[in-house]
Each structure stands twice: as C-alpha cells, then as structure tokens.
Amino acid sequence: MRKIVCIVLCLFVCLGLEAQKWEKIGDRPQMGWNTWNKFAGNINEELVRGIADALVETGMRDAGYTYINLDDCWHGERDADGFIQADARRFPNGIKALADYVHARGLKLGIYSDCGTATCAGRPGSLGHEYQDALQYARWEVDYLKEDWCNTTDINARGAYKLMSDALRASGRPIFLSMCEWGSNKPWLWARDIGHSWRIGPDIWCNFDSTRVHPQGFTDIGVMQCIRLCEPLRKYAGPGHWNDPDMLEVGNGMTVNEDRAHFTMWCMMASPLILGNDLRSMSPETKAILMNSELIAVDQDELGVQGLRFATEQGLEFWFKPLKGGDWAFTILNPTKAPVSYALNWQHFNLTDMEVSRLGTHFDSKIYRIRNLWTHKDEGKTLLADKVWRTLTVPARDVISYRLTPVSTKTPTTAQLLSTRLTRLAKKGIMFGHQDDPFYGLGWSYEEGRSDVRDLVGDYPAVMGFELGGIELGVEKNLDSVPFQVMRREILAQHRRGGIVTISWHPRNPLTGGTAWVNGEERSKNTVAAVLPGGRSHDVFEIWLRRLTTFLASLKDEQGRPIPFIFRPWHENSGGWFWWGHGLCSSQEYRALWNMTQDFVAQTLPYNILWSWSPNYGFEADALDTYPGHNRVDIIGLDAYQQRNGEEAFIKQLNKDLATLCQLAREGGRLLALTECGFQNIPDPTWWTRVLQPQIEKYPISYFLVWRNADRRQYFAPAPGTADAKDFTEMVKSKKILMLKDIAK
User: Fold this and answer.
1) Is the pLDDT at 3 greater than 70, yes or no?
2) For the whole model, what pTM was predicted?
3) How many of the other CB atoms lie within 10 Å of CB of 3?
4) Looking at 335-374, which runs of residues are DSSP E strands?
C-alpha cells in the first residue's frame, strides 16, 4: 500500500512542478470567520457547526462572510501512509462531513497548517508532507488554507510557501492560500504569485493601541500597531494578492468606538475581513458594525486599491481610498484618547495617488455627494470654494467615514461627448488615422480636398493628426512648413466631415534655443527644470504657452463653438531624444511640466480637450512613474514604429507594451490608442493585414495613427501605386478598420 501511495505522490509532485497559485478566487479580500481569536485551541465539530448556522441565521453569510475557518488544534495524527487525520475526539465525523455541512449552508470551509515540523500549538506541521496534505484537503473538499510559520528553523520562507502553493494547485481543487508568515521575510516582495494574502506582522490581540509580550518571547500587537505596519505596504496589495494585518477583534472586548474604528480601517486598507468573535451571542452593536454593508462595499471595491494616509493634523489621521467609478472613501481616524474637533476645508485635500491608482480627488474642480457610512445619511456636497465646509468632532478612538461620489453635470461638455463617441466607436472597430493627411503626399502638395489615402480607397482617414511645433515662436508655419492658417482650415474641415482631430506639439528648447530634439551638448541641461515655476526659462515658456493656447482657442466651428480635439503634448517621454524625455528630467519634473501645461491651457479651454499621454515603444517600467494620473489623462497611447528586419521583435514588443498600457487604461477607465505608429515606406506588401492588424485587434484600441507622407523617400501611409496599396485596401474592406464614412454615419 505504501508503495502505491509513494508512486501516486511522485506523479502528483511532477504534475505540480510548474504550478502557480489558483487564480480568480481572491479577486476581493476574503471574508469569513476563524476559530482562534475567541476560542484558541478549544474547538470541536459542534462549535463549528453552530457558528455555520449563526452565519446564515444572522444574515452575515449574505453580507459576504462565506469562509468558516478552522485554526490550530483540529489535527490528529498522521496515518501509516503519512496522511493527516482530524482529532477523532473533537471531530468524530471527520473534516469531510464538516465540509459537507458547511457547503450545504452556502459557506466554504477553511483549514489550518504550518510550514514547519509542528504547528504553533504542537500539532503535526506540513513540512515534508505538503503534497500529501494538499491532496487530503482536496479530498475533504476544503476551500481555504491558512499556513502558519512556527517551528521553521533553517527553512526558506519563499520556498516553503511556493511548495505548498504548487501542491494546492496540483491537488486539482481551487484552494485559497492565506500565508501567515508574520512579515518576518517580507512576503509582500515575493509572494504575489504564491499566495492570495500574506500576514504583514505579528498576531493581533484585543487591544486598540498597545502590545503584549508573552513569556515565550513573542509579541501580540494592537489595532493601531497593525495599521502602522500595513500602511506603507499598499503598493504591494491588489486583486488576488492582499496585505493581511490579521483577523478582526470586533466584539471581543474593546469599546464600541474602538470596534468601529478597527472595522473601518480594515475596510479602508482593503484587508481581509475574517471575524474572530462568537457570532452566537454578539451584541446588537457588534452586529451593526460587522454588517455595515456600505463599509463592506468599500473593502470589497472592484478597483482593489488599499487606502492611503494623506495627512495627520491635530492628532487626527486623514485616509483616502479610491473606488471604482471615480468615488472615494474618506475616513478621519482619531487614535487619541480624547475627542477632537476639526474645521474641514475640502481644498486642503486635493491629492493624486501616484503610488498606486494615479487617481486624484480634484476637490478644486469636482463636486462630490457626501454619504456618511455610519449614519447612512447624505450630508450634502463638497465645496469648490476655499472655505470650511463644517466643523466635525471625532470621538476618542473612533472614526467619521464618508463615501464621496462625483456629481454628474447636467450638460456634458464637448470633450465628454467626444470621449463618449470614441468609447462607442471602439466597440465598432479601430479607427485609422494619418498625420498631415490633407496637406501633401506622394507627388503633390496643398491640393484642396486631396489625400493619398482617399486617392487609394475613396475615403478620408477617420482620424487626422496635426502638429503645432513652431506656434510658440509666433511664426506663420510649423516645423514642417505647414501654414497655421491652412492647418486651422483643415482642422475645421475634418471636424465638419465628422472626423476626429488629434494635435501634437514639439516646441523648441526654451533653454538652449535648439529644436525639440536634443544634441549631445544639450543632454547635460535640464530644460524641464528651467521651464517650471522659479526656473530661468519659466517666463519665456509662459509666453509660449499663451501662444499655444491662443491658437487652440481659435479652433471653432461656423457657429463659434470650440472644436473638440485630442491634445498629445510631451509624448515619447520614455525615449531620450526630446528635451522632456527619459534621462533629461525626473519623473516628478515631467509630471510637473504636464500639470503646468494642462492647468495653463484649461484656464481658457476647460471643456473641449481630451488629453493623451503616450510613452514610446519599448518603454521601461519606470516610464509609468511619469504618468500624470487618471484625473489628468483621457487617452493612454503608445508610439511604436517597426524597423527594417525587425518584424518578430516588433510584434513581441508591441504586444508587451500594449498589454501593459491596456491594464493601466482599464484600471482608470481610460481610452487606449496607438497614437503614432508605422513602418517607413512599408517595404512589406502584406504588412497591414499580416503584421499590424492582427496585433492591434487583440486590444480595445480606439484608433491608430500612422505618420506623415513627407515625400517618396519617407512615407508611412499607402498611396496609389505603392507596394502595400492592395494590402491596405483589403484591411479597410474588412470593416474592422474604420475610415471617415464608417464613423460619420
């Protein structure tokens, strides 16, 4: 018999060599109940069944508390083949029967083990039996494993938890892995693909703000100590990988105020909500706290962002948590032993969460409806004015917590209408765009109504790109010698036809007097720092911004209404060839440049511009540090060109970059575009349908824009007679690529 078991386990291990944790079972912080905080090792089958019944009868299951987890001391001994068994005295019917009882009530069963030779209470650990234990849990139909870290001398934490994660995956049953490593080995740095949550510190105990040292030498920590440890780790948390400050002590002896603050802060930190009290005899106050559906919704929010402590003032802590749809959770925590009154001015809390979500509160331009999450009453709206909204008094060791929801404007702006249109069109197909399309082409220039693309397929591009480089100097023509007066006319014509307009700007270097492109000598000069407030070139640059804004404000239709357009300044900043590029300024300086430009333009044109941010193809991860934030960007783009003899590398890198930016766009509800692309002179006659189209159709791209047809030595769009003309025509006929007539209907 042992030989058969050994053979089976060997096969089992081999199947799991390349395994990873189970996905899609931890997309929200886990909710449930655990035996330890209230009952420690004094557990049995009758207790667990009673708690399961209470979860159902109290409505807590329907509130989201679905896991019922056995902690230490359920274990018996291992059988002759090494498989763990339940304590027959405490669990006479076995774990499988208990799982059936729990499952029959719409709940899930969790179990406990340890990476070491023994559990913290001296029961058998999983060391050397990981695959056997995982298989046994799967046989019992267990749904959740908490794995502790006692008795692990000379054991590598990452290897130990990876081994159990692989074993659980190989068992064939989706099992949530809760890593209880106490933070000693910083699991947040390496456990994202191993476990679904990880403890970030020692055990909690039923105290708001103190520690307790046991005779054996280990320490328990209070609620505030848990918060302090969890707070700086927010960037590591997210859907499927959560920071765990430990189980809840609500209802176990703290005051109602302390319980309320404890529960609220766990929700603000997107922490697991694992109850630890006796649900069969809890007070109405305890039940009201644990059943607060509005706070639970904050914890379980789909965005999955851990809250941040923005400020500390008068002993109070001000916490914000971005939520899906533009909402924010806002909590004022008073950790002191006395009530504190505070005059709340919303303008003191304008923030952008650059570390994780890149979302901003923008209280200076956005109004929110205010919902009190504990009184369950609306309390009016935030103020745009720089004045006190009201004076609040936060009781000792308590919270005031709000949900802030943006108030919709009754009349959508032209920019909002354009954004809505782009979103709708993206569901229909991908728009084709061309830079400088109506000005010149292969063998012609400035022939009214003409276009290389139109000459070929009988239709204009859906998107036309225009360049404003030179407008800052007050000259008549841009850097490509296009007269601004002609450009204004063609922008109006494209708008009148129902097309989309996108505008880029390559301003000259205000510090050196050179072009937007830097030479070797200029690489040592920080132009961005020079144009920011206080810099030596700031005054000159403000004049340039004024000239830019004057031209943009002149873009109006026949009725004098501003034309909506996409504006793409400071693009390809991940490269090092423009004075605002990588290595030529810091991420903070780049964002300051973006914000300064946007704020200046918005003073005159607040309602008709969609702002597009676009790094260059092949960007490094740190390029995302320059992202201005979802509240400042409407379209996330990519500039990507294929080089000769680089097709395979181009396809690979293009997919990598688009996947990264697609995730960023989805997180913020932004549009995605291939804002600049192409293959110079398109030497491959099947490039459009064989290389580019199959890649971009994988992503929810709004449009792709190829660069200009300068002359026959450098062009990026087809024309009659070019080698790629037939292939481009076939791509357009597929109806998956949208031209002007497709969007103007």
Assistant:
1) no
2) 0.66
3) 7
4) 340-344, 368-372
Taking CA 360 as the corner, what is the angle to CA 410 and CA 395, rounded to the nearest 5 degrees? 100
Q: Does residue 531 contact residue 510 with C-beta atoms inside 8 Å?
A: yes
Distance of CA 527 to the CA centre of its chain: 31
Tens-digit pLDDT profile for residues 121-146: 999 999 999 999 999 999 999 999 99
Which two structure tokens, joined as six digits, stand for 149? 């870290």
Whether 599 is catalytic: no
Distance CA 396, CA 149 (A): 36
Closest Cα to residue 168, out of 111, 108, 234?
111
Which candidate, 434, 304, 356, 340, places its Cα nearest to that of 718?
Answer: 434
The CA-atom distances, in angstroms, between 36 and each of 148, 276, 349 are: 13, 7, 40
First to last CA, the chain: 74
Q: Which has the closest alpha carbon to 678: 653, 643, 713, 725?
A: 643
CB 669 within 8 A of CB 358: no
Closest CA to 238 of 672, 671, 666: 666
Dihedral of alpha carbons 682, 684, 689, 691, sign = negative
| Three-point CA angle 293, 297, 301, nearest 5° | 170
Average pLDDT estimate for 494-521: 94
User: Among the options 143, 166, 203, 639, which is catalytic?
Assistant: 203
Distance of CA 514 to the CA centre of its chain: 38
Residue in 148, 299, 436, 657 annotated catalytic: 148
79 is catalytic: no
* 296: three-class secondary structure by DSSP: helix
Measured CA distances, 120 to 35, 73, 687 (Å): 15, 9, 63
Triad 331, 336, 337: Cα angle to 5° = 130
Q: Are strands 635-642 and 609-613 parallel, antiparallel or unpaired?
A: parallel
pLDDT digits (tens, 9 = 90+) for 257-277: 999 999 999 999 999 999 999
CA 94, distance to chain mean position in Å, is 43
3-state class of 227 per DSSP? helix
Report how far residue 636's alpha carbon sits from residue 611's, in angstroms, rounded to the nearest whole number: 9
Q: Which of 291, 397, 388, 279 is nearest to 337 (CA)?
A: 397
